[in-house]
Backbone:
């Protein structure tokens, strides 16, 4: 530490640079002649493995592989349920403003079988994306306030999906998932909520397949949406505090002991890459 008691290690620059590399690699992988279902293993697992191997002495701190108790799992499920009105409202707003072409492409099954779709669409992303975002990236922001760390993590998680449609609701999901990890000191909290969120539409389609040529759109009441979102935010905030109490975590205690710049060159380049690639996708559709 220096004379001001500030952390000298540039942890943010380190993970922002790593994130930039992952974004570049992920874009490149999309143009390689590989099976669709192998994308995340090549795009994410390879760089994650390299990073963790190079930092193997810090792997436990980075990944936080602490088991969760049943109460925590139940609360995490309730928090996910309370996130639904927010996520659904964002998705519906996007489709009303920009159409459903891209959402329809994203919603297509990546595997013909239910088990295959569950594995590649829910289980794999829940593990790999959480190891990357709520493990490696969030750890790099450990010397910033939890709010700032969660906010930037949500931003970077949204950009990781490399399209404007998924950016907005995954931003919210990433922000909440970061606080779940803070409140439990366990990456499993992020993995569980991620798995539930991705597997829910798969189970719903399997149990009750959508009928073709049926218009499910409606004209939602704006006041009802505002009330629902307000209630969800308040309830999630309360449950996060309860979750922290159950796990013996002082959620209000902040560790803002670093003045390291967040919006550095690697992050700016990542943002430019995201905007540029997402714009090309829009123009190509």
Residues:
């Amino acid at each position: 530490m220096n004379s001001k008691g500030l952390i000298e290690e540039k942890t943010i620059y380190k993970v922002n640079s790593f994130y930039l590399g992952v974004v570049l690699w992920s874009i490149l992988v999309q143009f390689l002649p590989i099976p669709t279902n192998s994308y995340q293993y090549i795009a994410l697992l390879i760089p994650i493995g390299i990073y963790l191997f190079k930092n193997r002495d810090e792997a436990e701190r980075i990944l936080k592989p602490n088991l969760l108790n049943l109460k925590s799992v139940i609360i995490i499920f309730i928090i996910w349920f309370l996130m639904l009105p927010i996520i659904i409202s964002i998705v519906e707003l996007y489709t009303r403003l920009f159409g459903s072409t891209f959402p329809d492409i994203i919603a297509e099954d990546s595997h013909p079988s239910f088990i295959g779709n569950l594995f590649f669409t829910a289980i794999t992303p829940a593990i790999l994306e959480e190891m990357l975002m709520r493990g490696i990236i969030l750890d790099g922001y450990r010397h910033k306030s939890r709010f700032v760390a969660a906010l930037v993590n949500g931003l970077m998680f949204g950009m990781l999906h490399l399209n404007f449609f998924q950016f907005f609701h995954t931003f919210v999901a990433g922000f909440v998932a970061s606080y779940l990890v803070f409140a439990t000191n366990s990456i499993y909290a992020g993995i569980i909520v991620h798995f539930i969120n991705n597997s829910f539409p798969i189970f719903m389609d399997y149990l009750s397949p959508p009928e073709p040529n049926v218009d499910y759109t409606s004209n939602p009441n704006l006041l009802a949406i505002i009330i629902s979102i307000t209630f969800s935010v308040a309830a999630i905030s309360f449950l996060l505090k309860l979750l922290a109490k159950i796990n013996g975590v002082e959620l209000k205690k902040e560790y803002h002991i670093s003045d390291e710049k967040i919006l550095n060159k690697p992050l700016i380049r990542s943002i430019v890459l995201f905007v540029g690639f997402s714009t090309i996708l829009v123009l190509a559709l």
About this structure: Residues 70-208+219-284 form one domain.
